[in-house]
Amino acid sequence: MSTLRIFRKKPDDLGFFGKLGFYLFLIIGALISVFPFYWMFVVGTNDKGAVFHVPPLLTVGDQFFHNFKRVLEKADFFQALGNSLFVSSAVTLSVVFFCTLAGYAFAKYEFPLKNGLFIFVIATLIVPQQLGVLPTYVIMAKLHWIDSYKALIVPAMVNAFGIFWMRQYISTAVPTELIEAGRIDGGGHFRIFWKIAVPVITPAMATLGILNFMTVWNDFFWPLVVLKNKEHYTIQLALQQLFTTRDGLDYGMIMSATFTATLPLLIVFLLFSRWVIAGLTSGAIKS
Amino acid sequence: MAEPVITSPHAESKRPFLTEQRRSRITAYTFISPFFILFSIFGLYPIFFTFYLSFFKWDALNPMKFVGFKNYDLVTSDPTFWISFTNTLIMGLMGTVPQVMLALLLAVLLHSGMTKFKKTFRILYFMPNITSIVAVTLVFSTLFGNNGMINWMLNGLGLDSVAFNSGWWGVKIAISTMVMWRWTGYNAILFLSGLQSIPMDLYEAARIDGANRRQQLFSITLPLLKPFIIFVSLQSTIGALQLFTEPYVFLGQAGTGSTRQEGITMVTYLYSEAFRNGFFGTAAATAVMLFLVTILFSILNMLISRGAVGDTGGKKA
Can the keyword Cell membrane be found in this entry's annotation (chain B) (predicted)? Predict the structure, then answer.
């Protein structure tokens, strides 16, 4: 920031060069953020040798379908995409439902041990996943869930972050009087939750859903541990597999697959980016 | 707020056992029970079992055999473990420290009032984080290839090519770069939301007192941002210690496996002990040590960020 001190007359005015440097820095940062996406597309649409082109090739080619055909020969790409879609959707629906229920209970009910239990929920966020990986794997083996989607879905069906995030939102967004009025009218507990609370908090549910979907979609470690059969691979495992081929690395093929696998998430993110970022920042400071 | 929120007093006399209060308590417990049931099975029990398992010799098939501290001896006398340990620390430092500082700088720049396109920048900076680590690693493995773009740029600057996919430092630089690319923008947005929570009149008051930008930065912005700085660096530290996918995928090409010494990390070591070699006991001991290291570094990190930012912001309410 030392250059900024030259323009000292008005403390807020950077002057022309200050502004220029300022925007230049931000733009270079943004370009670095975006460039790999573009590069993925460039390599995916050019022929095999494009990666090693000197100077680096930066224009989009017309070999995309040609490359992508080789992906389909090497891997069940769409099967893997479908698997990921299934697992991520199942986990997300379940997480949103159970976390909303639990968040609602912590926000709007009084019961013994409430605060203690909530602190426990928050405390579980600190424990690293790897600590329990081996026994969890053994449990999965005992349940005969290895190589099945149950191993991916069931342990992830509800999580502490979601409960925390829904509780925060519900305690401010859902008026307690409305719930009491519903009780006086004789509505059941779940019915009131469903008819009165849920319509008010759909934005928070959507944010939680998107964040969770991205996490599950992008997970690599746990699927790698429990999935054995290639038919069951999620898209991340399928992508990694393309990279492991022995006969020379076909980057055109790899990148056409990577790009196709990234595109859906990218579109969803761009459509909902405001929510995603809001969700991220409001859940950020929990301690 | 000790009174139950949802209670209708009319029902109490009619039903002596299932009063409204009891009913709403039961409902509340039912609503929160899925978490506690699932966490007990797939969270709490495995954690305790890992500690227990670390004292046994076991291949996940045959009966377990108690060996005391032997697993810990085996792990700590394995040079590969210590390589994975140093790698994790080196890559952790290389990926985290510059990343957090850069994120802070980006956030401060984005926050200064006159930034146009703030929303667009936020979206662009966040984009790396939505990509899967596998995809990121594949892309960067082309950029860091022997004839890749990074080496082309180095040559253009008159420097020698670096063996990013096989050299001791090369691999570490490549992997740290991937980590930085993925997380810098994410952290910048966390910092940005922290900056936005600082009341503007503080700055106005400081300006009236004649404080320049630098003074404002060091005596208002950074101290008030302290909780965010601690949170972000803590999260980055924990994330860095769990590094797995980047080295696994980056070094896993051509079927050579991922335990190559240039990039093996503690989690990679754990993974290969358990799922490649079938040594569940030593893998459990590794998990326990990883956990202890995580706690140690979390505490260390808290102390450092507390010291670095200064205690001016630590005023108690």
Answer: yes
Q: What pLDDT digit, counting tens, does each position of A26-59 carry?
A: 999 999 999 999 999 999 999 877 887 778 888 8
State the Cα–Cα distance between residues A273 and A280, nearest whole angstrom: 10
Token code pair at residue B134: 């596998």
- Chain B hits for A221, CB-CB cut-off 8 Å, are 244-245, 267, 271
Rounded distance between C-alpha atoms, residue B289 and residue B45, angstroms: 18
Among the partner-chain residues A11, A30, A110, the one whose CB lies closest to the CB of B4 is A110
Q: A158, B254: Cβ pair inside 8 Å?
A: no
pLDDT-derived band at A151, boundaries 50, 70, 90: very high
Encode pLDDT of B199-224 as tens digits: 888 888 888 888 888 888 888 888 88
A263 to chain B: closest CA residue: B131
What token pair was written down for A244? 């492991």
A36 prior amide bond cis, ω within 30: no
Our CA-based measurement puts residue B246 at a distance from the nearest CA of chain A, in whole angstroms, of: 10
Kindly tell me if the per-residue pLDDT of B47 is higher than 70.
yes
Name the token pair of A188.
């059941």
A136/B42 Cβ within 8 A: yes
What are the residue boundaries of the structural domains of chain A, listed by start? 3-68, 75-241
Integer Cα distance of A4 and B114 in angstroms:
14
Contacts of B45 (CB under 8 A, 6+ apart): A135, A139
| Closest residue on chain A to B258 (Cα) | A244
Q: What's the rounded Cα separation, in Å, for the pair B246 and B133?
A: 7
Yes or no, beta carbons of A98 and B35 under 8 Å apart = yes
Instruction: Answer yes or no: is pLDDT of A280 > 80.
Output: no
B181/A137 CB distance under 8 A:
no
Q: What are B228-260's pLDDT values in tens digits? A: 888 898 889 989 999 999 998 888 754 445 567
Which of B15, B24, B33, B138 is the mutation pick for testing A, counting most A CBs within 10 A?
B138
Who has greater pLDDT, B8 or B27?
A: B27
Whether A83 has a pLDDT exceeding 50, the answer reads yes
Three-state DSSP class for residue B57: strand
- Which chain A residues are closer than 8 Å to B245 by Cβ? 220-221
The CATH number of A75-241 is 1.10.3720.10
Interface confidence: ipTM more than 0.90: no
Residues of B in contact with A50 (CB under 8 A): none
How close B169 gets to chain A, by Cα (Å)?
22
Residues of chain A above pLDDT 90, percent: 56
Q: Please state the pTM of the whole predicted model.
A: 0.86
Are B41 and A139 an interchain contact pair (Cβ–Cβ within 8 Å)?
yes
Task: List Cα–Cα distances, A126 to A2, B36, B265, B291, in angstroms.
Answer: 39, 16, 20, 11
Predicted confidence band at A4 (pLDDT cuts at 50, 70, 90)?
very low
Do residue B131 and residue A218 have CB atoms under 8 angstroms apart?
yes
